[in-house]
Amino acid sequence: MKNFQFKNPTKIIFGKDQISKLADEVPENAKVLMLYGGGSIKKNGIYDQVVAALDGIDYEEFGGITANPEYETLLEALAIVKAKNIDFLLAVGGGSVIDGAKFISSAALYEGDEPWDILSKRIRTSKGIPLGTVLTLPATGTEMNSGAVITRAETQEKLSMGGEGLFPVFSILDPSVVASVPQRQIANGLADAFTHVLEQYMTYPVGALLQDRFSESILQTLIEVAPVILDNPADYEAAASFMWSCTMALNGLIQKGVPTDWAIHMMGHELTALYGIDHARTLAILTASHYTHNLEAKKEKLAQYATRVWGITEGTTEEKAKAGIEKTTEFFQSLGIKTKLSDYTSESEGTAAKVADRLAARGMTKLGEKGIVSPADVEQIVEMSY
Ligand code: NZQ
Ligand code: ZN
Hints:
Keywords: Oxidoreductase. One of its GO terms (molecular function) is methylglyoxal reductase (NADPH) (acetol producing) activity. One of its GO terms (cellular component) is cytosol. The chain is an alpha/beta fold. It folds into two domains: about 10-175, Rossmann fold; about 185-385, Dehydroquinate synthase-like - alpha domain (Dehydroquinate synthase-like, alpha domain). It has helices spanning about 20-25, 40-45, 45-55, 70-85, 95-110, 115-120, 185-200, 210-230, 235-250, 265-275, 280-295, 295-310, 315-335, 350-360, 375-385; strands spanning about 10-15, 30-35, 60, 90-95, 130-135, 145-150, 155-160, 170-175. α8 crosses α12 and α10 packs across α11. The two termini are about 35 Å apart. The model has no long low-confidence stretch (mean pLDDT about 95). The site of 5,6-dihydroxy-NADP has 34 residues, from α2, α5, β6 and α7.
């Protein structure tokens, strides 16, 4: 096992009717900006619950943060933060709203002229203005981590940022919110969380027995709840396990002491930036190709996954590894997610090279554990994904 340090300062408030606890968590005398998305919270009752809980607190609102949060929109919110002396952000939404809030949190204290530099120059955020979240969509884990992904439509870029200053102070996780989430987003959440675990697990063995079991148990839980929650998003118990699995999949715990990959995410962000494909679906498109292309490097963990998660006990290490890849594709498809790039775009000419070039231009020429994925590999992996 590798050396590691672990600190996660986010307070989780989990369970039914917990949104009402908001007022206990927002600092006294705070001037709050409540951020939300395209309006789903006004239809499903979450907005009313938040507003009721904020009774007596001085707050402003900013709605309209889109999926794949857009830089230009976030700059509008940033202007409000500055004009109204906001000192606490409350994000009410899924990954996009929470990530957007993280960007605003960082940009509000950023001293440079161009806040986009935080992303393009990968400036880490050691301090932002504090933020809390009310999660409305289990998927990304952003409610308990210090990362964010921001899009700039103008330049077709989707870039990541992070730093210890971006952990939410608290996150309220009420699984009841899942009842109103559309099937497409539930499927996305399941696939995203599943891939988060894979990206931190599917490398090579380092004797991290507990981390492996943590990861396998999250994968098994997602597999178990998937058909239940897709069939009935109002099933509270299934929603609770789904929600907690998504959080645990990317709150830092399972990646401690182990090598991580993240190549699927890096390539996937390019596909979203170019074609607007939902984040989770880009992952489903790339996973099998990535693992097949890198079978030699990953086969031991793939075989372990096939055996422990999918019960495949027959065959050589390589045969089990390949069966594990097939099971993964079948799992994505069982969620109603198409797994080929050609299912999403008819544009094929030059895409693979474009993805490789864009990553290389940002210095990402050695992706994956041990830097095994070169631009030439990226090109082949994307090519295999049609
Ligand atoms: O905008 P509204 O009206 O709120 O509707 C949203 C949106 O259309 C809707 N929704 C959310 N909660 C709902 C609901 N509809 C009904 N009932 C509810 N309770 O769902 C749609 C998608 O929302 P979005 O926030 O975009 O989805 P998700 O949580 O999957 O977030 C995706 C974003 O997170 C980034 C992705 O790249 C993408 O931009 N990621 C962030 C990560 C992180 N910070 O750690 C890691 C991930 O790998 C990922 O990259
Ligand atoms: Zn993801």
